[in-house]
Amino acid sequence: MNHSSHWTRSYIFLNGVYKWKMLLMERIPDQIGYLVLTEDGAVLTSGGELENDERIANLIMGLITLTDNIDSNAFATNEKFDKMSVTYDDHCYIISLSNKKIHVVKKKLTSDGSPPPAAPQPLVDE
Amino acid sequence: MERNLEKTMDDVINTEGVIGCILADHQGLCLGAKGKASGDSAGLIAAIADQAAKLEPGSKSPIIYLQNDTRQCLIHRQGPVVAAIYKQVSS
C-alpha cells in the first residue's frame, strides 16, 4: 500500500467520524449552535450560531481553567465538575467534558427558563 | 448594610441542600462567607462571573451553574455583588 492511498483512506475515515459527530450534535433538541473542542482548546467541529466561533471557544477555555479549583473548603481538590451551564434569559450554553473533548451546546429556552416543548410526535409511525 | 448581607446569607444557608455561600464585591473582595465556603475564593468567583459575562457583553449577567455527581455550585452577579451558592445533591 503506498502512502498516499493510506493517507486518503485515513482522511476519508476521519472525515466520516467528524461528520457523524456533527450530525449527533445537530440532533440535540433546541440547539442553536455547537462546538466540539480538544482539551487544549482547538475547535474540532462547530455549527449553527457557534460555527467557527473561536472567540466563544477561547472564553469557554478560560472559564474551564478558572473553575478548575473553586473552593478547597467546599470541594475536595480531587473533586472536579463535569458539567457547566451559563444561563441567559432565553438561551444557555451547556459545557461538558466527554471522551477527552469539550462539548459546548447553545440551546434555546422559553421565558420560564425551561426548554421549549418538543413538537408533537405521532404515536404510530406512518 | 452588613446586617442585610448577614441576614441574606443566613436565609440562603438555611435552605435545604445548601452547604455554603459566599458574597464578593466587583473587585473580587470577600463581603461574607457562610457554611463550608472559604473567603479566599471570592476573587475566583468574581473572575468566573466576569469571564462568563464576556460571552455576550450586551446581555444581562448570566447564571453560571457547575455540577458533578454530588455537588452543585451556582454563581451570579447582581449589580456590584457576586454570589456563589454551594449545594449538596441529595440522591
UniProtKB/TrEMBL annotation, chain A:
<dbReference type="GO" id="GO:0005085">
    <property type="term" value="F:guanyl-nucleotide exchange factor activity"/>
</dbReference>
<keyword id="KW-0458">Lysosome</keyword>
<dbReference type="GO" id="GO:0071986">
    <property type="term" value="C:Ragulator complex"/>
</dbReference>
<dbReference type="GO" id="GO:0071230">
    <property type="term" value="P:cellular response to amino acid stimulus"/>
</dbReference>
<protein>
    <recommendedName>
        <fullName>Late endosomal/lysosomal adaptor and MAPK and MTOR activator 4</fullName>
    </recommendedName>
</protein>
<dbReference type="InterPro" id="IPR034601">
    <property type="entry name" value="LAMTOR4"/>
</dbReference>
<comment type="similarity">
    <text>Belongs to the LAMTOR4 family.</text>
</comment>
<dbReference type="GO" id="GO:0005764">
    <property type="term" value="C:lysosome"/>
</dbReference>
<dbReference type="GO" id="GO:0032008">
    <property type="term" value="P:positive regulation of TOR signaling"/>
</dbReference>
From TrEMBL, chain B:
<dbReference type="Pfam" id="PF16672">
    <property type="entry name" value="LAMTOR5"/>
</dbReference>
<dbReference type="GO" id="GO:1904263">
    <property type="term" value="P:positive regulation of TORC1 signaling"/>
</dbReference>
<comment type="similarity">
    <text>Belongs to the LAMTOR5 family.</text>
</comment>
<protein>
    <recommendedName>
        <fullName>Late endosomal/lysosomal adaptor and MAPK and MTOR activator 5</fullName>
    </recommendedName>
</protein>
<dbReference type="GO" id="GO:0071986">
    <property type="term" value="C:Ragulator complex"/>
</dbReference>
<dbReference type="GO" id="GO:0043066">
    <property type="term" value="P:negative regulation of apoptotic process"/>
</dbReference>
<dbReference type="GO" id="GO:0071230">
    <property type="term" value="P:cellular response to amino acid stimulus"/>
</dbReference>
<keyword id="KW-0458">Lysosome</keyword>
<keyword id="KW-0963">Cytoplasm</keyword>
<dbReference type="GO" id="GO:0005085">
    <property type="term" value="F:guanyl-nucleotide exchange factor activity"/>
</dbReference>
<dbReference type="GO" id="GO:0005764">
    <property type="term" value="C:lysosome"/>
</dbReference>
<dbReference type="InterPro" id="IPR024135">
    <property type="entry name" value="LAMTOR5"/>
</dbReference>
